[in-house]
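Whether sequence alone determines local backbone shape is best considered at the level of individual chains. When preparing material for the folding task, we compiled for one chain both its residues and its backbone structure tokens. The sequence in question and its structure tokens are set out directly beneath this paragraph.
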Amino acid sequence: MTVNLCKKKVLNVVLTLSNRNNSSRSACSCSDEQCFLYINNQSLPPPPEEPLQSDCCGQGCNPCVFDIYESDIAKWEKKCCRILNNEEDFLEDTTKNCRLAGIVLDQFTSLQIISIQKITEKLITYRFKLPDNKPLNLNPGQHLLLAHKANDFMLTRQYTPISSVDTVGYFDVFIKIYDNGKMSDQIRQWHVGDYAMWRGPYGDFQYLPNQCKKILMLAAGTGVAPMIQIIRYVINNENDDTLLHLILSVKYYDDIALKHDLDAFKQYWNVTVEYVLTCEKDTKKFKYGDKITLSKVDHQFLEKVLFPPSQNSKVLICGTKSFEKDMIKYLKQFGFTEENYFKF
């Protein structure tokens, strides 16, 4: 077992929780050697590996690799406390989620790619196999964390499954491949049969059937993923009468991801799908039944589609940082508060 003796605060936490040290966490009466010998003799799990500053991509991920580390430290402290206090049920708690779900929050799980479907040249859907035909056990709107480690450098990105939340045995994610993206360089090399590391679910969004009469979904590009997941959840519940209006902003008609699925959603009485194309010139591509606006999702556009803010309605937002910032700015101009909208 290896213990980083420089992490005196972490060692003190374990000693404090085990009732051997009643002083504050910032002080320790033991020498580093004493701490090491005591903890080593208790067969405790090693502390989580602290990420390097370079491991953070700087894109404002939620959770960030450092958020995950702090969460892992807290779980490690709790686990050490229960071991030191001879609480025998700690193993049951740590394995419960593993038995029920194919992916857990506590650690990354290696999952195999079982199919790859190219939507466009840069948009690809990947299907991952879940062990023992298990479900994901995630709520509508939650996302997963993908990790890749090479040369002591950890890359992480967030992706929202587009498969139904109650699907068992597998899940689907669609990913945009960027020309100079660090994670994209790794994903580009994926083949059927390869493995990737996943963890989750994450996300604070909570959906309750019929909690809102109306939900307006403002999405840009791949930001449509959580909207697709929520729409599937609503239409699969025949008792949910929530009205859904999806507005998807992309540059060109061919950029509309998963259009076949979106067109299928329009067949439901409570789902409206509208595309806003910001750069398209060729209107001959449009198909019968497409609801398309050649414009931008701006103040003037939203004025036509927004409903008055109320407790019975909600606006969901997902897209690029600039898109999300603009949407929130416009919503506030119309009197919306954080209670009336949610940004993924």
